[in-house]
Specification:
The protein has 15 helices and eight strands. The chain is α+β, with helices and mostly antiparallel strands. The chain folds into two domains: 211 residues, Endonuclease III, domain 1 (Orthogonal Bundle); 133 residues, Alpha-Beta Complex (Nucleoside Triphosphate Pyrophosphohydrolase), CATH 3.90.79.10. Helix 9 crosses helix 10.
Length: 363
């Protein structure tokens, strides 16, 4: 099986920009991107990211905001924050070179079993598995595993098999071969079993359970949350605030406001307090201009946007200023700052609301 799979990989591997790469930093960047992003989406962004941060030291020296901005469109920004934190830790603790042993790799921010296994096996030849979604699917079908792969017992069975299958040499190629097999042949839907080089060894193929593997636990309904935000726009500039680095959307920019669990309807005085807190004395709450729903992996977020009206009787220069963690952003700045896709969708909804006349525009 090993020889067959490695031979197939040598001939049929996907033409991805990081294939054949031996520089550990570049391998790390590619695998960090691939954790929650399709290869086709990650490929052009990989080159762009490395053009901006060509070395580990360049990444470590960069401000977090620059890293988040370059990560825009890839989603799951926690990966970018971990990448940045780990780069700084490697620069300070390991002399700027990624450690070559699995234990040290696992100690770095963001290095879970998959990332440590992928970087360790591909960059350093460590005989350790790298189990992503493609590998989970391939092995659960090869074994005809009836256990949920998202539970400890099922995951342990997959990890054990992945470790046992690894060849003495070329573990990185073998791990990537399993990934490619899952991406190209052993697909989630309409698997190409008749073309698969492992068809004769596949237990699920023999029992007719390919479509039922892998087994997964019933998905929980996403938790509901509501984000209440202020639309303060003057002279073509929109007020934005930067979130704290930890938590959902950490370090990203957004319309000022607050998040609440569920679907509450806050009283007017709470909106007015938000105006004073985020914009200053004299600001008043206006009409609702938009609502937008975005569904993330584990959350269903409702954005509620209301206009904020500027103080009366004051010159704009008194309050139209940037501050630490808050800016007035024109269209160019808005495009450059790191915002979540969900926030950009909410801003687009707010813009439509303004253009359709829902809410009163001052200034």
């Amino acid at each position: 099986m090993r020889e067959r799979l490695l031979g197939w990989y040598a001939q049929e591997k996907r033409g991805l920009p990081w294939r054949g790469e031996r520089e550990p930093y570049r391998i790390w960047v590619s695998e960090a991107m691939l954790q929650q992003t399709r290869a086709g989406t990650a490929a052009p962004r990989y080159a762009r990211f490395l053009a901006r941060f060509p070395t580990l030291r360049a990444l470590a020296d960069a401000p977090l905001e620059a890293v988040l901005a370059e990560w825009q469109g890839l989603g799951y920004y926690g990966r970018a924050r971990s990448l940045h934190r780990a780069a700084r830790e490697v620069a300070g603790k390991f002399g700027g070179d990624l450690p070559r042993d699995l234990e040290s790799l696992r100690s770095l921010p963001g290095f879970g079993p998959y990332l440590a296994g992928a970087v360790g096996s591909i960059a350093f030849g460590l005989r350790t598995p790298a189990v992503d979604g493609n590998v989970l699917r391939v092995l659960s079908r090869l074994l005809d595993l009836p256990l949920p792969v998202d539970k400890p017992e099922g995951r342990a069975a997959i990890e054990k098999e992945a470790q046992a299958l690894l060849p003495p040499s070329k573990p990185g190629d073998f791990n990537q071969a399993l990934m490619d097999l899952g991406a190209r042949l052993c697909r989630p839907r309409r698997p190409r079993c008749g073309e698969c080089l492992l068809e004769a060894l596949c237990a699920a193929r023999k029992t007719g359970t390919v479509a039922k593997r892998p087994v997964k636990s019933p998905r929980r309904a996403p938790r509901e949350a509501t984000v209440f935000q202020l639309w303060a726009e003057q002279r073509g500039k929109l007020r934005l605030a930067r979130r704290e680095e930890n938590g959902l959307f950490g370090g990203l920019w957004e319309l000022p406001g607050w998040m609440a669990k569920g679907r509450p309807e806050p009283p007017e005085k709470e909106w007015q307090r938000a105006c004073a807190k985020h914009l200053g004395p004299g600001w008043r709450i206006g009409e609702e201009i938009a609502r937008a729903v975005r569904v993330l992996t584990h959350r269903k977020i409702l954005f509620v946007l209301r206009q904020a009206l500027p103080p009366k009787g004051k010159g704009r220069k008194a309050w139209l200023k940037d501050e630490d963690g808050a800016v007035w952003a024109d269209a160019e700045t808005l495009a450059a700052l790191p915002l979540s896709n969900a926030q950009r969708a909410a801003i687009a909804a707010g813009r439509r609301g303004i253009e359709e006349g829902q809410g009163r525009l001052f200034g």
